[in-house]
Each structure stands twice: as structure tokens, then as C-alpha cells.
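Hi Y.,

Following your request, here is the sequence exactly as I used it, all 92 residues.
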Amino acid sequence: MDIMRELYSVITDRKANPVEGSYTNYLFDKGTDKISKKLGEEAVEVVIAASKRDRKEIIQEIADLEYHLLVLMVDRGITLDDVETELRARRS
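Below is the corresponding structure, written out as C-alpha cells. Let me know if you'd prefer a different format.
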């Protein structure tokens, strides 16, 4: 199982089976607006890291961005397969 699918599965499980103290559950409890805000903040942090040209920092910020994107996807009921299907359709 690739890491994105593994992480998606963990996030989905957190939504179905909340764990006290879980940051993921904190985001779900706060709702879509909070999740979207965090996603935007992480996107800006990727841009800032890229402008510094610090490879390690860019990778770390991209990982944060991808995590928050997956949380938004689970929140909105969008699967990795949904996104893959859309990307494949764009290639044809």
C-alpha cells in the first residue's frame, strides 16, 4: 500500500473512530472551514519554502500540504480514486 493510501485510510478511520487528542479529529471537529484554512496556510508555506530554495523545508511543507489535502478530501467524501480518475481523464 502506498503512503498516500495508507494515510488516507488512517484519516478515514479517525473520522469514523475519533481518538481523543488526535490533531486529525481536532480538524474534523472544527469543520470544513478550518480544514480549508489550514490547507491554504500550508500552500503558502510551500511557496515560501520554495522561494528560500531549501529542499528539505520544501519537502516538509509539501508533506504538510498533502496531509491537509487528504483531510479535506475525507471531510468532503472525495476518494483518491476520484482524483486519479479526474487526472487520467485530463491525460486523454
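Residues 55-76 form the longest helix (22 residues).

Thanks again,
Q.
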